[in-house]
Design a protein that fits this description.
Helices cover 24% and strands 23% of the residues. By secondary structure, the protein is an alpha+beta fold. Strands 1-2-3 form a 3-stranded antiparallel sheet. The chain starts with a strand and ends in an 8-residue tail after the last helix.
């Protein structure tokens, strides 16, 4: 998932945080993408409440490590950290 934090409209760039599930072989990090790439291949989580997660939450690994549980958190569903 890519969490957008701000847009540099004049450059067509969206800044944010890339989250990947445990075992994907990818490392979560902050970065940027072109607006055109997000428009072509991205989607939006319909039930996400803006501000429900902060950039600090993402950097501090507040999302679960599995894809299914992370989507549940983003949609505002309960997540229990066993």
């Amino acid at each position: 998932m890519f969490f957008a934090t701000d847009i540099q409209a004049e450059d067509g760039i969206v800044n944010g945080y890339h989250w990947f599930p445990l075992g994907s072989g990818l490392i979560p990090e902050h970065g940027s993408m072109y607006v055109r790439d997000i428009e072509a291949t991205g989607g939006r989580v319909v039930d996400y409440e803006p501000g429900a997660l902060t950039f600090g939450d993402l950097l501090n690994r507040k999302l679960p490590r599995s894809r299914v549980e992370a989507y549940r958190v983003v949609q505002g569903q309960t997540y229990y950290d066993d």
